[in-house]
Amino acid sequence: MTTGITNRLASLVLVIFLCFPAVSSAGSISTFPDVKSMIDAFNDYSTSNGTFVVLKSKPLHIQLSPQVVKGDLPEVIMEQVNRALMYGIYRSFIHTQIKDITVTAVPIEINFRNKNSTLLSKYKKTISISRNKALALVKKYINAASFSDLVTDAKIGTIVIHDQWTKDFKRIYYNDQGSPGLNRFVSELSK
Predict the structure, then answer these.
(1) Cβ atoms of residues 61 and 148 within 8 Å
(2) Which domain holds residue 94?
């Protein structure tokens, strides 16, 4: 009986570490030498399933493809596209030292029956932005002196999980967390 509990506890710890790659000492922000390393570590997008592609190294241009399913409403798909743009821009500036980035977001529709996927090019959106412009726009809406102010630690029991969006940044990252909301913010980010 003790072995079963130990095995389940070990499995739970493994799941937590796989789902939250940035578990370390309190107050630290994960940093990476490049965007690909960051994407690999966070595991929200992946080259293996076609949701992350480096389109060009210099200047850096990446593509993120949020996964959607047949029947998703167009406004839901566009929200996923906008969130992918935000993820690519802000995660990159928070966790790497890059100065500029171009992010293209194009959703990928997954068919679970035949295991095929299709890029939905009609929803494709691209934003090119500098580190300074991205931070200045955030400062317009929330109190943030630097990119590190956009992430915080979260606790699950006694485990500290780093690099989670702050409550203030969630007002920008989602549409239902307050003003300005994701869609409005991405509209300004695109200018």
Answers:
(1) no
(2) 2-189
